[in-house]
């Protein structure tokens, strides 16, 4: 595979496009808002004004778009334009039901879609250190392997259907709960005048340690953390998980409420690890 179309130039899509270009792929990018494409040109990415122009002749097509309905509308244009041997890597987090619909749409068009949501943020994409959870037919996964290897340090093939999107939401629930626990712990330390480093020391070598949350907490304490888990995105993933579960466990709803409070105050792009928390309990 040598030519890749990246549809969606938000934080993650742009990072993926830059990474692939740096790895020697011919990359064409399209975005609904054309102004977001301009910075990619200096990274060697060719920008296109239409979905069809970006997709035509590409060996792989990556969609990194905000919702299932947006992906579906773009799919109506990309599927007829992509080659029969090309592979569609649907990396957007859209949940299971939308994934099933998109897979069926691709099947009717005679094209192959891999359900391939990613874990980690744009910085990991720039370094080629993403985790990609992928489901779909083995031959298509192998055809897409060069692209996946350029973007990810871990590629987990978890099934032949839409299993990857379900696992991604489950992992997102775990991550959001871990981040919420860490943020609450730091807030409690502030309010009670306790040293968060000492609280972390008690946890770090014990059975209740969560390395991810402890690492994030240390970065927050040191002022070295680059925001990477926006409140709005964490809330979106939890909404998808809660909707799909129906009778969702109370933990997911509780964490969603914790994220929703700052998000509802116009802070949806704030980092979930450092949401504005009141200094005094209500």
TrEMBL record:
InterPro entries the record matches: 6-PGluconate_DH-like_C_sf, 6PGD_dom2, 6PGDH_NADP-bd, HIBADH-like_NADP-bd, HIBADH-related, NAD(P)-bd_dom_sf
Top enzyme class: oxidoreductase
6-phosphogluconate dehydrogenase NADP-binding domain: residues covered: 3-159
Record's keyword annotation contains S-adenosyl-L-methionine: no
Enzyme Commission code(s) on record: 1.1.-.-
Composition-biased stretches (Basic and acidic residues): 263-272
GO molecular function, one term: oxidoreductase activity
Keyword list, A-Z: NAD, Oxidoreductase
Pfam families (alphabetical): NAD_binding_11 (PF14833), NAD_binding_2 (PF03446)
This protein's name: NAD(P)-dependent oxidoreductase
The family this protein is said to belong to: Belongs to the HIBADH-related family.
Residues covered by the 3-hydroxyisobutyrate dehydrogenase-like NAD-binding domain: 162-247
Keyword check for NAD: yes
Gene3D superfamilies per UniProt: N-(1-d-carboxylethyl)-l-norvaline Dehydrogenase, domain 2, NAD(P)-binding Rossmann-like Domain
Segments for region (Disordered): 263-282
């Amino acid at each position: 595979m040598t030519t890749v179309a990246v549809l969606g130039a938000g934080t993650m899509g742009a990072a993926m496009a830059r990474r692939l270009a740096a790895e020697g792929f011919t990359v064409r990018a399209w975005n609904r808002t054309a102004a977001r494409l301009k910075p990619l040109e200096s990274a060697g990415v060719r920008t296109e004004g239409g979905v069809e122009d970006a997709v035509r002749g590409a060996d792989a097509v990556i969609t990194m778009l905000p919702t299932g309905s947006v992906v579906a509308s773009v799919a109506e244009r990309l599927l007829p334009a992509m080659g029969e041997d090309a592979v569609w890597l649907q990396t957007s987090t859209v949940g299971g039901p939308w994934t099933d619909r998109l897979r069926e749409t691709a099947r009717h068009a005679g094209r192959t879609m891999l359900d391939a949501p990613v874990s980690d943020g744009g910085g990991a994409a720039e370094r080629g250190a993403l985790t990609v959870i992928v489901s779909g037919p083995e031959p298509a996964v192998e055809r897409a392997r060069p692209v996946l290897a350029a973007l990810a340090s871990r590629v987990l093939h978890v099934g032949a259907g839409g299993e990857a999107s379900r696992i991604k939401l489950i992992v997102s629930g775990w991550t959001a709960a871990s981040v919420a626990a860490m943020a609450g712990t730091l807030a409690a330390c502030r309010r009670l005048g306790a040293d968060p480093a000492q609280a972390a020391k008690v946890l770090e070598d014990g059975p209740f340690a969560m390395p991810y949350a402890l690492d994030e907490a240390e970065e927050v304490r040191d002022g070295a953390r680059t925001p990477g888990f926006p409140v709005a995105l964490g809330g979106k993933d939890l909404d998808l998980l809660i909707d799909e579960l129906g009778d969702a466990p109370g933990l997911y709803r509780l964490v969603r409420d914790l994220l929703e409070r700052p998000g509802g105050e116009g802070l949806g792009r704030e980092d979930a690890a450092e949401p504005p928390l009141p200094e005094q309990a209500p």
